[in-house]
Amino acid sequence: MTALRCAVAAMAMIFLGGAVGEAAEAPATLVRKTVETFDEVAWPPEVWSRAAGATRLSAEVAPDAGGKCLEVEVRFAGKGFEWFAAMPAEPLVIPGDAKAVTMRFRAEDKRYPVILNFRDGWGRTQAGPKKLEWAPPPDAGGKWATATFRVPEDWVRPLTLASIATHNWSAQADARTVRFWIDHLEVETDLRDADPETGLLRTWKPDPQPADPAKAVKQCPKAPLLAVEFSTGQVSNVFSREPPAVALRLRNWKPGTLTGTVTLRVADGDDKPIDRQERPVSVESAVQINLPLKAERFGLYRLQADLALSDGAKRVEKMTFARLPPGRDLSEAEKQASPYGVNVNGGGDRPPVVPFRKAGRVAPAGQGRGQEVRRLALVSRHHAALRPGGRQGASVPDEEHPRAAGQGRQGRRTAGPGPGVDARDRGHRPGVSRDHALGA
User: Fold this and answer.
1) What span, in angstroms and rounded, lies between the C-alpha atoms of 158 and 167?
2) CA angle, 198 as apex, 196 and 202 as ends, to 5°?
3) DSSP class of residue 152?
4) Tally of domains within the chain
5) Which of 54, 68, 22 has the alpha carbon at shortest distance from 438?
6) What value, to the nearest 5°, has the Cα angle with vertex 262 and ends 29 and 400?
């Protein structure tokens, strides 16, 4: 009898041990990450927004929070239905099986809902008659509130956080400026079916009956478990009034915290070493590390950044940047009298005029005012500074033009930088705190 009891007890221990082991293993694939703190970068406005508005970073955070938050200001005209949305500067895809999204927010007027829009794994923002969105009820007194959204099981994964929006459906005749605040977006997701190397969802299948086969998503959306980005935050990596710096952004979906080091090497245009620095790195969810670059003289520089993390991941980034002397601020009359303009050949709609402006080529803010648009002769002292050993007034070939320092895209023909170009230029991600305006 004693032997039978021992056998039964042993079997029970084996069974319970296995069950406990399975229960302990399941949570290891369930992670909770803060995907956005809004401490560094404001989400820019969606260019298709019908209402005018702006986004900026604000210190009006929740009483128990620090850092900054996203402030959204929308100006409704009161002439019918309008909407406004702000979207991540880069796609924010949630790897694995998204379970929940938590958001802190504050709204001044409940007639204007705060909406978090999603895109599913088939690229849809609407499935049948149902929009893929969540609009939590705001605090009645206009105070900060925290709300959690449980993602429906029938939504196709992986999900993307597409935008944060509002509209005036309940107050279409009211001309009103509305503000709301967003902070600390948190996501809970199960990585059990996410490929550990690529982050791709192994259970994903294409839409068997797409509404438009030509536009149907053919491959699973990319959702890497580790994202690494180096960015100067300056168009074409050209610095003038700003001190040279590079931002390292890390997003970690893997369980736990990753640690490591980043090493920066700066050389001049002749590849002569100028500076070397090494910094520790730690990332649990997402982090931005701003790294100053030593560039005391005006000219062209080369940067190599080496990142090594505790999970074995390594990244090497090489880029060229330039430091130019600040140009003199010109009056509108001086701009009109200037013989220079900017002629950018290409089919894009956002010409890289900012580097030209920093290099001293400033034209009127509009077109059609009798300003003769000429192709630039790059013969200013600013461009000569880009050329190692270049003398004032020396001609600088196109390959040493400021846009060669980065990946600035070509755009339409323009006589000048025009209002709002900086805010709408989506050809780069800002590396520092930045405000954005649309329809101002």
Assistant:
1) 27
2) 75
3) P
4) 2
5) 54
6) 120
Query: What amino acid occupies position 167?
Result: H
pTM of the model: 0.75
Look at residue 8 in the predicted model and tell me its pLDDT.
Answer: 46
Considering the domain architecture, whether residues 109 and 173 belong to the same structural domain is answered as: yes
Q: Which of 408, 257, 248 is nearest to 315 (CA)?
A: 248
* 100 three-state secondary structure: strand
Residue 292 vs residues 41, 246, 278, 439: alpha-carbon distances, Å: 18, 6, 12, 34
The alpha carbon dihedral of 383, 389, 391, 394 has a sign of negative
Residue after which a domain boundary falls, among 266, 297, 323: 323
Which residues of the chain fall below pLDDT 70?
Answer: 1-27, 341-352, 361-440
pLDDT of 393: 31
Torsion sign across C-alpha atoms 350, 355, 357, 363: negative
In terms of residues, how long is the chain?
440
Instruction: Please report the pLDDT score of residue 337 as a whole number.
Output: 82
Cα(102)–Cα(61) distance, rounded to whole angstroms?
Answer: 16
| ∠ Cα 329 334 340 (to 5°) | 95
Distance CA 121, CA 151 (A): 13
Whichever domain contains 176, its CATH number is: 2.60.120.260
Tokens of residue 378, six digits: 């790059």
CB–CB of 416/341 below 8 Å? yes
* Domain-ending residue, one of 323, 344, 374: 323
CA 371/CA 178 separation, integer angstroms: 39
User: Residue 24: in which H helix or E strand, if any?
Assistant: helix 2-25
Of 352, 417, 429, 426, which is closest to residue 45 (Cα–Cα)? 426
Expressed as residue numbers, the domain containing 280 is 226-323
In a shared domain, residues 165 and 275: no
Locate 205 and state its tokens: 């299948």
3-class DSSP state for residue 10?
Answer: helix
Q: Is the dihedral of CA 118, 121, 126, 132 positive or negative?
A: negative
Q: CA separation (Å) from 422 to 117, 351, 353, 435, 436?
A: 25, 10, 9, 10, 8
| DSSP assignments along 35-92, one per residue | EE--SS-PPPBPTT-SSEEEEEEES---TT--S-EEEEEEEE-SSS--EEEE--SS-E
313 within some domain: yes
